[in-house]
Amino acid sequence: MQLNGSDILMEVLIEQEVDTIFGYPGGAVLHIYDALYKYKDKIRHIMPVDECGAGHAADGYARASGKTGVVLATSGPGATNLVTALATAYMDSIPVVAITGNVPTNLIGKDSFQEVYITGITMPITKHNFVVRDVKELADTVRQAFLIANQGRKGPVLVDIPKDISGAFCDFERKAKKQPKKYRIDSSLQKNIQDVAELINNSKRPLVYFGGGTRDYTGILREFLQNTNIPCVHTIMATGNISYDEPFYVGLIGMHGTVTSNTIINEADLILAIGTRFSDRVALNTSKFGGEAKKVHIDIDQSEVNKNVKVDYELIGDLEEILKAFLILKCKSNSKEWLSYIKDMKEKEEERLKNKFAPKEFSPKNIMDTINEVTKSEAICVTDVGQHQMWAVQYTKHRFPRSFLTSGGLGTMGFAYGAALGAKIAKPEKTVIQITGDGSFYMNLNEVATAVEYSLPIISIILNNNTLGMVRQWQSSFYENRYSSTDMNKKMDYVKVAQGFYAKGFSCKNLNEFKEAFSEALKEKNTPVWIECIIDKDEKVLPMIPAGGNVENIIVD
Fold it and tell me: Is the N or C terminus of the chain more exposed, i.e. has fewer CB atoms within 10 Å?
């Protein structure tokens, strides 16, 4: 059948099981928006306040649902507004397909109105990108974009479509969606698996350190931990992939991880790093990380092996297949004393935290504890970046994967509201809570207009200390209290501004006020709610290991 490029795009999106697209219209994508009008019964279009918000929404949709997020933007500034969102998705390996319009092909390279070389700009922050120069190539290009976004290590892909291509006609034939190939275990990999299984059998202090790459494999990961009797620590990106109340769960590792987690990784005799990349926020001192332990890296991406920390064994391939192979071998560690030692250390650390925060009635920990108690640890929490992000990962409890969404790699302030929109669209039955600070919230509060428009009852908890808290903390610890451009000094009545957006707002100065406001917020079914929590600007995120340090340098008070 003969279709124009825009109708072909819609047909391929439907092939790829896309039912929601986030976007913002403009001249270069008018043909595509005309097609969206015709296909509105099959594809829902969500229009945030700007393209960056749309990009973060597509990202949040993908993180919460496990599907591919799709975002659409016009040429020029519309396309460049996607850059931060694409970089955020790229650093955290999130599958997003971005579709941008461009000027007609005969005007490319002539500095035309709203022309920009978006594929050149985004080349370093996408897995791949395309410019479609022939409408006959459009369908297969978009199909390939979805395949690449989900093949191996996931990530964003951009497809740039000039305006004349989106309006040109050609024959179109529907095709079945291609599934990403699985990496099968060859003889060399099987030999390495057998060698590592023997290490597990002989280990007395084994430890699994897992990251965001495990989000699609939590069931088999849990089975592996149970069968091998190995405790586990995790990165911020893997929060919720193993429930906090599992007996082999220890906690967060890294700069703001628990004392227990950071201690035992240097005392282990075997470390299995699964779906993680030894980032500088975890392996702060790469020469000392993991002590004398044998190190095994299990990952889909060969380029990550030995990039930051040298390992003894590499198992590169499909995580599910590799963990299945271990289960077949029935390996099991001799870790009874090790588990008892860790359990005792965890209990002492929890008692220390309890005593530390007891006098501080309106502390970030008590706010997070209230969230845990009221939501029964079943909400989706979405954070921005800064102190609030670390308090959230330290103190909110999560029992399910895809329940804690944050910008871990790029560290994007302004990420959370857009991502919360996408998460709520993906999981309308879930309570979605944005946890943010006043600095980050100023960067994305405009998206509450989108939440109001689409009747999305997103709850924003704003930890307002009137400062860029993490920057202030570093200036306090390492720059002799020279607070350069740190205090916000911005005047805003959060309650009135929320009302101006036709949302609801509360301002709280103590824990009882917060509990009442949070209870009211949870009753809302169609209206977003802001809850401002006024906290001490000198409240710090602890524990903390300084950059380049090790557990010996940890700051706890």
Answer: C
pLDDT of residue 557: 84
Active site residue 163: yes
151 is catalytic: no
Cα-Cα-Cα-Cα dihedral of 360, 363, 366, 367, to 10°? 150
Q: DSSP character for 86?
A: H
Over residues 143-177, the pLDDT tens digits come to 999 999 999 999 999 999 999 999 999 999 999 99
Of the candidate ranges 103-107, 379-383, 494-498, the one whose mean pLDDT is the lowest: 103-107
Active site residue 389: no
Select which of 127, 154, 163, 295 is catalytic. Answer: 163
The length of the chain, given as a count of residues: 557
Is 190 marked active-site? no
**Is 51 a known active-site residue?**
yes
Domain residues for 488? 364-534
Indicate whether 546 belongs to any domain. Answer: no
**Count of the separate structural domains present in the chain:** 3
Looking at the fold, whether 321 and 400 belong to one and the same domain comes out as: no
Write a three-state SS string for 475-526.
HHHHCCCCCCCCECCCCCCHHHHHHHCCCEEEEECCHHHHHHHHHHHHHCCC
| Whole-angstrom distance, CA of residue 6 vs CA of residue 11 | 9
263-288 residue pLDDT tens: 999 999 999 999 999 999 999 999 99
